Amino acid sequence: AQEETVKIGLAVPLTGDYAIYNEVAGAQCMAEMINAEGGVDGMPIELLIQDSGSDTQAAITSAERFMGEGVVSIGTIPFSDTMIPLAQIVGQNGISVIQAQSTQVEMHAGIVDNFISNVAPDPYTAAAAANHALEQGVQNVAIFTSDDGGSWSAKVPEWFAEVITENGGTLQTTLNYSAGTSDFSPQIAELRALDPAPDAVYISWAMPEIGILIRQMRAAGLDAWVIGSDGFDDPSLDALADEDPALLDKVFFGTLAPSQPGSRIDEFQQACAEIGHEVNGLFPALGADMVRIVAHGVEAAGSTDPAAVREAIRSAESIPVMSVEDVSFAETTSYALREIPVIGFENGERVLLSLEVPENVPAWN
Amino acid sequence: MTRLNASQRRGLIGALLLSLLILLIVGLYALWGESWQARVLYAAFVNLIVVIGLQTFMGNANFAVFSHAAFMGIAAYAAAICVTPVAMKAVSLPDAPWGLNAFEMSPLASALVALGITGTLGLLTGLFMSRLTGVGVTIVSIAILVIVHSIFLHRTDIFKGNQALFGIPRIFGLTHVTVLAIVAIFAARLFRESAVGLRLRAAADDEIGARAMGVDVHRARLVAWVVSTLFFAAAGIAYAFFLGTISARPFYFNFVFLTVAMLILGGLRSVSGAVFGTLLITIGLELVRWLETGPTLAGVKLPQMLGLSGLLLGVVIVAVMAFRPHGLMGNREIEDLVLPRKGTS
Amino acid sequence: MLEVAGLKVFHGPIEAVHGIDLAVGQGTCVSLLGPNGAGKTSTLGAIVGSVRHEGAIRLDGRDLGRMAIEDRFREGIALCPEGRRIFNNLSVHDNLRMGAATRRDAKGVAADIDDWFARFPILGERRDQSAGTLSGGEQQMLAIARALLSRPRILLLDEPSLGLAPLIIRQVFELIAELRRDGMTILLVEQNASAAVEVSDRVYVMANGVIRRAGAAAEFGDGSGLMDELTGVHA
Amino acid sequence: MDYAVQQFLNALSFGAEYALIALGLAIVFSIMGLVNFAHGEVIAFGGYSLAVVGTILTGNPLILMGFVLLACVAVAVLLEKVAFRTVRDADITTGLLTAFGVSIILQNVFLLLGSPRPVAATQLIFLDRTLWLGPVQVSSLQIYETVATILAIAGLGLFLTRSNLGIAMRAAARDFEMVRLCGLRANRVVSGAFAISGLLAGLACIFIMARRGSAAPHMGFDPVLTAFVACVVGGFGSLPGAVLGGFLLGFLEVGMLVLLPQSYGGLARAAVFAMVALVLIWRPDGILSPASEKGDKI
Amino acid sequence: MLSIRNVTKTFGGVAAVADMSFEVAASEIHGLIGPNGAGKTTMINLISGFLTPNSGRILLDDTEIHRMPPEQRARAGIARTFQNLRLFRNLSVRRNIEVAESNVGAGADRSLVEEAIDRFGLRGVMEQTPDSLSYGHMRRLEIIRALALRPRVLMLDEPAAGMNAEETEELFENLEWLRARHACAIILIDHDLKFVLQASDTITVMNMGSLLASGLPRDVTANKEVVRAYLGTGQN
Ligand SMILES: Nc1ncnc2c1ncn2[C@@H]1O[C@H](COP(=O)(O)OP(=O)(O)OP(=O)(O)O)[C@@H](O)[C@H]1O
Ligand SMILES: Nc1ncnc2c1ncn2[C@@H]1O[C@H](COP(=O)(O)OP(=O)(O)OP(=O)(O)O)[C@@H](O)[C@H]1O
Ligand SMILES: [Mg+2]
Ligand SMILES: [Mg+2]
């Protein structure tokens, strides 16, 4: 039966520990843009949003509710402990989980077959960042790991180090930290004791800890590169330039989609601001891609039947999205193989340093 | 000596009344409920078992403890690792040590193993928990929570940390957890009215007075502690068997706050309080979740106010503490509302 | 000096004192006697403002009715309470300082404290010990001393002899007599009727929340048969 | 050698920060028997007020520091008035749970009014400058922090044992009404205690903000949890105990980070807490057990 | 039956009990008197196990008990009341008694406690919590609760404090009844000398932690030392 609207459920964390990873703002903005142009095959897109409070049970409950309302797809907390059971449960009704920003490798191990992520898994960003580091002549690296963020904080630095060592570099030391660290002095003392001084440190984490680390390293006279992952891709990192643009001089990160000034994301954010949506940062912006992908699937399938839409998405040669020209799931089935941007800073302004699909991604599945 | 004294008989009546309430709710759902509400009910009953377990220690001994999520997690992981088929574990736990991914057990055996492991850990921790006093109990319980959580996070080869341990057979449904909840209610009531329960409550009021009356305070606390960990274990098993995927995340502070708030609202001194508190907060949270999405009420579109649910918990705790420090029920049990005691003037 | 008229005292919903009248003249000692539960402590509680009450309480003609506890104290009403209520966690010396906390003359306070140590030498010996570890009787002495350290205009004593050895009881009653001679106004609640009557100018006898008898101390002889008479009526 | 000295100084400043927060907890506990878990949110409030005032009013760091102190004192006193006064006579558990409730409310208010992501407030990071003492590099912040903590401890100790108000504060811990019966305005006494704890929170907030450069809803939770542990290890309710516990925790934490092999790095926190549990088994009331201070006799 | 042998307890520098020895025979009422701070309450704490002696021994029928924890001594038959009441505030009067009762074997004499409840006038308040009782009732409840342990030694710390002559008399009669009804030794501390002398078979007088005198009531009151340290010259 033909529905009059295309419904997308978002059982996402607006509060709680993972609140910064939700894709609501970009999705809302994109849905409004599409609806303003007549919708998808004449059907408007409707977003059903519920706060999961970062809690798995709450997310699944909301998802079950959405199922009753006939959604085409669902987005949720981008961590596998929620995405897997949720996908299993909504999969019984043929509904897909389509994530705007999930980089977790586990989701692509074949546990669930109704999962699609708009971005490439973590090893890609690690490899891209490592490749750029090698180009800068980085040889000796130290990495920071933590168990607090799952494989994202624990494994990604190791993948980075793997690429470095495979190309003749050295992993000098692995340092540990925990979420909420507000003083890295002990780790910095360790870094300072390294001989030779490290060329680069890698950490897959987010603000404000990153800011503290950068500041304390620079204050301690360590001028090694500080390299990171998509967690760096947040406006609050750029804000360090207000203190001192030099703080960001030797900082870069591999991320999910280009977000420097003049990039498509940047333009999208400005367009959204004009129609009254504040879309702040990478993760919120990527919600727009997710909406575009679903819209494309509905159009191609000619229906809102979730399974048909999923098939259509997977068989499409290219799907135009907001953040890059297009993505495709034809080869990978569950994630978009994208060019990975490496972004750095010049005088405190973001610049795109490289954009490639890395060839030398460490084995991850 | 199986003859029950007057309080214990009243306890059974009370437990029966509470069970009827639970059955009534399940009945209402069966008749008119929507499918997503089954999940709400399931989660509520799992929480109920935890809150009742909390009541057996916190309520009777009058200490605030926060380690229950840890024990629940231990049981959930133990049951999950035992029950998940070998073929699935090859994918989900490829690096597990000690042959953990090379065996599988029946659900019943897995549950028993989980209860056994959790109970043993309860006993070991209880040996020193029962010796601590005052705030020390709270702090060591927090230490247990943090330590267990760190181990979950760190030993990713066994627990997968904040990633998912998936592929657990989804064995349990609403019926199972309803039965478990009712068993828990009876067990907690009988414990409260037992000699140990009575001594524990006496010691909570006046430890020195109780010792002078021959109460072995440490032993009573130890027994209650171990019993309460078994409740948490049951809840953990039910959680894992229902969801099919677990991670370290749900077994931490957020869950602790939620369940403690439930207990406080109802009143930690009584089992009925634990039940009412759990039900009320569950309903309240669902209401808030619905309100915060900005529904249309009587033709008026309410504004969207996402994020209120967290606030609600805090407000409930503070308001209850300010206006009814002993919770809705205080010292009373459900049967005290229905059948007044003789001789009270 | 202190006048109480139509005083009712409540503990939650329970009315413990049912409208009593009482007067304590300047420089006199008045005893309030009666069996357990008569409402003596409740009456004192009302005067210092720690329990809910109705009716008039006048100090030198001024109504204290709505005044807060601490303000009544500052008007010169000090209480040596039932159960002593010393600060267990403070040293003996600091307990005494608390009694004088509203005084501004640090030297005078120090001198007064030394006086009390001279009067009760055992307290002096325990000067820096936590008051909670004192024996029952030592705590009682401390409570009396604390109440007097503020140099109140009127002193309320609630069973000051409770738990004291005979020797010390005598000392306490001698102290009361001495204070009276020095012009202190005293309202005394006691179980030890004969000793109380002996030091008093006037006696009120209370039972079940009402005043049963009132009169000059002389009318009560040595106070002995008093309680029998009362409890006989209400047994 | 250089490395060892450096790590020693690091441990000292970690310890000083915990001690400062622990003192704030201990003073409220020793006076009111309240385990104030909302102390962390007082610190966070200071952080947010720095962010707000720093962007809309003035960038002058001295004024801002004064303002942070003021904000923390004000919010601590306010919390006492609206939330803790009602549970003043309640037992420890009631107070502790109330404090938890207050902490949850405040965190959510920060979340709703602010944002889940950190709000930048970098006006105080200038406090953190690198100094060289011979070959050893120290942060000026570490020095300020250690000195401030020592001054705070000394000042507080004198205040509580010498001044009438200080003695009254300790007395109020036991018998609130009796303090009033001694003519002291007890509400002021308790407000005073909260003001002091707010002041200590404000100091801690300045140091934390000087390092973090941003405020976030949960920023106070972890340090306060650690400080709470420090209090208990030291002997809850004992001010010297809080200080001792704070420094002990600082040394344990840095020691664990340095000594544990990297493959066990994730267990550093677990190891610290396990040691704390061991200390408590050895001395259930903490190292400097305040039992004598409580002075209870049977 | 209960022997205290050379027991010493010091707090810091203060010897609260110094080298005390005395014997309590089965089914006697043994008065323990002395000035404030003499160490009487400390003595009871030592016997009931809330303090352990620095030196010396405490024996119950030739068994050393001075290293046992209090609860074990309670179950061995040593019961006490407290100078400051220690009732279980959230339990009904009945359950207060049941706490003690739960520690005695099934063979115990059930009717003892029931009779005591009637005699002490608590029958009508069994389902109330102690807070709602008058102070006198609370004191009586403490005694019954201790009695529910079926003690062999019952120690009462100032049971008559705050009672008037009439009530003290009633307490005395209840003690007499108790002695007739249940064979146990009673250690009685009180400052109401008339009451103690009337009730006790033997009296021990303590002063500054040590034994000052002991013997029959009339011998003790005649003792000059006792008069000087405790009673003061010219009795009242
Ligand atoms: N806090 C309270 N709550 C309820 N009732 C109370 C409270 N305090 C006293 N009462 C009741 O009020 C009445 C009077 O008590 P009060 O303490 O004033 O008597 P009293 O004359 O001082 O007796 P006593 O000689 O035993 O000290 C008693 O019946 C008592 O039970
Ligand atoms: N825990 C303690 N710490 C220090 N001193 C103590 C402690 N307990 C008792 N004392 C001291 O020991 C002495 C004996 O005290 P105890 O309470 O036994 O006296 P008592 O004979 O019962 O006196 P009272 O008749 O006044 O109750 C007192 O001087 C008291 O100050
Ligand atoms: Mg009284
Ligand atoms: Mg005594």
From TrEMBL, chain B:
GO molecular function: branched-chain amino acid transmembrane transporter activity
InterPro entries registered for this protein in UniProt: ABC_transp_permease, LivM-like
Its membrane topology: Multi-pass membrane protein
Keyword Glycoprotein: no
One annotated Gene Ontology cellular component of this protein: plasma membrane
Cellular compartment(s): Cell membrane
Segments crossing the lipid bilayer: 12-32, 38-57, 69-88, 108-128, 135-153, 173-191, 222-245, 251-268, 303-323
Keywords: Cell membrane, Membrane, Transmembrane, Transmembrane helix
The protein's name: Branched-chain amino acid ABC transporter, permease protein
Organism: Oceanicola granulosus (strain ATCC BAA-861 / DSM 15982 / KCTC 12143 / HTCC2516)
Automatic annotation (TrEMBL), chain C:
Record keyword Secreted present: no
Stretches assigned to the ABC transporter domain: 2-233
Origin superkingdom: Bacteria
Gene Ontology MF terms: ATP binding; ATP hydrolysis activity; branched-chain amino acid transmembrane transporter activity
InterPro entries attached to this UniProt entry: AAA+_ATPase, ABC_transporter-like_ATP-bd, ABC_transporter-like_CS, BCAA_Transport_ATP-bd_LivF, P-loop_NTPase
SMART domains in the record: AAA (SM00382)
Keyword ATP-binding found: yes
Family indicated by similarity: Belongs to the ABC transporter superfamily.
Listed name of the protein: Branched-chain amino acid ABC transporter, ATP-binding protein
Lineage per the UniProt record: Bacteria, Pseudomonadati, Pseudomonadota, Alphaproteobacteria, Rhodobacterales
TrEMBL record, chain D:
GO molecular function: L-isoleucine transmembrane transporter activity; L-leucine transmembrane transporter activity; L-phenylalanine transmembrane transporter activity; L-valine transmembrane transporter activity
An annotated GO BP: D-alanine transmembrane transport
Membrane topology summary: Multi-pass membrane protein
Entry keywords, A to Z: Amino-acid transport, Cell inner membrane, Cell membrane, Membrane, Transmembrane, Transmembrane helix, Transport
Localization of this protein: Cell membrane
Main location: membrane
UniProt key word 4Fe-4S: no
Annotated InterPro entries: ABC_transp_permease, BCAA_transport_permease
Keyword field contains Chaperone: no
GO cellular component assignments: plasma membrane
Residue spans crossing the bilayer: 18-35, 64-84, 96-114, 141-160, 189-210, 225-252, 264-282
Family according to the record: Belongs to the binding-protein-dependent transport system permease family. LivHM subfamily.
Protein name: Branched-chain amino acid ABC transporter, permease protein
Species of provenance: Oceanicola granulosus (strain ATCC BAA-861 / DSM 15982 / KCTC 12143 / HTCC2516)
From TrEMBL, chain E:
Domain ABC transporter: 2-233
Record carries keyword Secreted: no
One GO cellular component term: plasma membrane
Entry-linked InterPro entries: AAA+_ATPase (IPR003593), ABC_AA/LPS_Transport (IPR051120), ABC_transporter-like_ATP-bd (IPR003439), BCA_ABC_TP_C (IPR032823), P-loop_NTPase (IPR027417)
Residue ranges the record marks as coiled coil: none
Keyword ATP-binding: yes
MF-aspect GO terms: ATP binding; ATP hydrolysis activity; L-isoleucine transmembrane transporter activity; L-phenylalanine transmembrane transporter activity; L-valine transmembrane transporter activity
PROSITE patterns for this protein: ABC_TRANSPORTER_2
Any one GO BP annotation for this protein: L-valine import across plasma membrane
Keywords, in A-Z order: ATP-binding, Nucleotide-binding, Transport
Cross-referenced PANTHER family: AMINO ACID ABC TRANSPORTER ATP-BINDING PROTEIN, CONSERVED COMPONENT OF ABC TRANSPORTER FOR NATURAL AMINO ACIDS-RELATED
Name of the protein: Branched-chain amino acid ABC transporter, ATP-binding protein
Organism, scientific name: Oceanicola granulosus (strain ATCC BAA-861 / DSM 15982 / KCTC 12143 / HTCC2516)
